[in-house]
Write a structure and sequence with these properties.
The complex is a heterodimer of chains A (about 300) and B (about 240). Chain A is α/β, with parallel strands linked by helices and about 300 residues long. Chain A has ten helices and 15 strands. In chain A, about 35% of the residues lie in helices and about 20% in strands. Classes of the chains: A alpha/beta (about 300), B alpha/beta (about 240).
């Protein structure tokens, strides 16, 4: 028997597999297909203080081995998420969930995090300072170490649960931002959000996505995300959730060897709704193949 | 929604750039007006294709070659297996259309009208169908609709078959219908929306990420709130559309 359990800031997960925010809704679509309680946890759809429709369509474009999205944080707003979505979510998912929170200024993050912190079903608050698809706020807040630290401190001051800061890869020096949020009190880092990208339609000669650019994800970005996790692992001592193109049990192990304590699976859920289930089921055999009996022992093993 | 393996029974060209693929597999979850989402080797995202007909274990899809995905589909051979998500979207509501429903399909919006027509005829409705195409060489299925027992009108933009003009050039002379079902390019849907004197159901198309409601890639605003074309759509009622 192999041990797939990992621990994030005191929260023990049965396995390190966490569907990424924005690819799993609040879980119900997937709960129709399989018992989602097999997941380590999942990160629910990015939530903001006010309801948001998001960007105009088209919001999606395909790339070789990946996709670009510019959804723009469509969500019903924190109050409706708490009053309507979470009660429904609890019926299909009984483990602590990762609450993904976004905003456009420090005050919004603070208000949202304060509210979500009171919810029993939330195990980790994942503060998204890296959304590439909104104007003003989002990623702009996550590209400056001082601003990232300021948000981290402000959120930590109003919360009791572990706070993970989700960083953008669209920066010159990821390490300086990771260190800044660690020093500001972050309990962990989610690394990373999508990479900026675009596609142009040859027939219309215009960008495919209405917002012109979007966040690039999928297997194509796995090596890039892996590199960032590797770099940040050497610089900080708080846990890292590795995110970016993870699509198989082998990818999970590779991401953990780079330094991730857990991983998030994003785009893969959209092309194969059973992707996380398959990864979880394959994981023990793949661990055995590579002589791993206790998964947590390989974290950072490549260093 | 189900994730299933289907086997290709046939895949043949039926008009300019238009192919008919018959798949064999578990069709129990498939309703008319819904779509399936097909995984294609070498391409990352699935390709959503509307359901043309369901008969026992046979699922018929009609698709137009418009890009890499449909081009790859057109080269697939009998016996090839496909990973397909079925039961996607809301489908048409057949219970509200009265006795004389009018079905209007434009281009690749024609296929979903076929299963709908079949079921409405079976229920004893007096069905009229308007099929719109650009030119005669693109026309398909007009005889198949007639064989179902529907009254069929064809419109072509260049006049090479049927009425010269758009579907609305046929529709404008029709007064004796109780409901409208339509699928086609958005300008056509809008023209039908403006001309129709009854209520109706309009099937929309949008670029999708997942096709089953997870990614919010295909959202639209309606009078009844935000809807996902892949989940609460693709069929919207006339009353909820914002135009």
């Amino acid at each position: 028997m192999v041990n797939t359990k990992v621990t994030l800031s005191g929260l023990t997960l049965d396995n390190p597999i966490i569907p990424a925010s924005g690819t799993f809704g609040y879980g119900y679509e997937f709960a129709e297909l399989y018992d989602i309680n097999i997941l380590g946890s999942f990160s629910f759809k990015g939530t903001t203080l006010e309801p948001r429709f998001g960007n105009p369509t088209p919001r999606i474009a395909e790339t070789p081995m990946g996709m670009i999205n510019a959804v723009g944080l469509q969500n019903p707003g924190i109050d409706k998420v708490i009053s309507e979505e979470l009660p429904k979510m609890r019926q299909v998912f009984h483990k602590p969930v990762v609450a993904n929170i976004s905003g456009f200024c420090i005050e919004e993050y603070v208000k949202c995090c304060e509210k979500i912190d009171k919810e029993d079903c939330v195990g980790i608050i994942e503060v998204n300072i890296s959304c590439p698809n909104v104007h003003g706020g989002g990623m702009a807040l996550g590209t400056d170490p001082q601003m990232a630290a300021e948000i981290t401190r402000a959120v930590k001051a109003v919360t009791t649960k572990p706070v993970y800061i989700k960083l953008t890869p669209n920066v010159t020096n990821i390490v300086s931002i990771a260190k800044a949020v660690e020093e500001a009190g972050a309990d962990g880092i989610s690394l990373c959000n999508t990479f900026l990208g675009m596609r142009i339609n040859l027939k219309t000669r215009k960008p495919i996505i209405a917002n012109k650019m979007g966040g690039f994800s999928g297997p194509a970005v796995f090596p890039q995300a892996l590199r960032l996790v590797y770099l940040v692992y050497e610089a900080v001592s708080i846990p890292i959730i590795g995110i970016g193109g993870v699509s198989s049990a082998e990818d999970v192990i590779e991401m953990m060897l780079a330094g991730a304590t857990a991983v998030q699976v994003g785009a893969a859920n959209l092309v194969d709704p059973f992707a996380c289930k398959k990864i979880i089921e394959e994981l023990p055999a793949v661990m055995e193949k590579y002589g791993i009996t206790d998964l947590k022992e390989i974290i950072g093993g490549a260093h | 929604m189900k994730q299933l393996i289907f086997t290709i029974n046939s895949n043949v060209k039926i008009a300019k750039d238009v192919y008919k693929m018959v798949l064999c597999g578990d069709c129990t979850d498939i309703k008319c007006g819904q779509f399936v989402n097909i995984q294609i080797d070498g391409l990352y995202l699935r390709r959503p294709i509307s359901v043309c007909e369901v008969e026992g274990e046979e699922l018929t899809l009609i698709y137009k070659v418009v890009g890499k995905g449909t081009e790859a589909m057109s080269r697939m051979l009998k016996g090839c297996e496909l990973d397909v998500l079925t039961g996607l979207g809301n489908g048409y509501d057949l219970t509200v259309c009265g006795e004389k429903p009018l079905l209007i399909g434009g281009g690749v919006g024609v296929p979903p009208m076929y299963e709908l027509c079949k079921q409405l005829v079976k229920e004893g409705k007096s069905v009229s169908v308007i099929l719109g195409f650009n030119k005669a060489e693109e026309v398909f299925y007009s005889e198949e609709f007639k064989a179902l027992g529907a009254q069929v009108f064809v419109a072509t933009a260049d006049g090479s078959m049927g009425t010269k003009g758009f579907v609305t050039d046929v529709m404008k002379d029709m007064t004796d219908y109780t409901y409208v079902y339509t699928c086609g390019p958005e300008p056509m849907l809008k023209a039908v929306y403006n001309m129709s004197t009854t209520s109706g159901q309009f099937s929309f198309e949008e670029r999708m990420g997942c096709g089953f409601g997870a990614c919010m890639g295909c959202s639209c605003k309606t009078k009844y709130g935000n809807k996902r074309i892949c989940k609460e759509g693709p069929v919207l009622t006339k009353e909820e559309i914002i135009w």
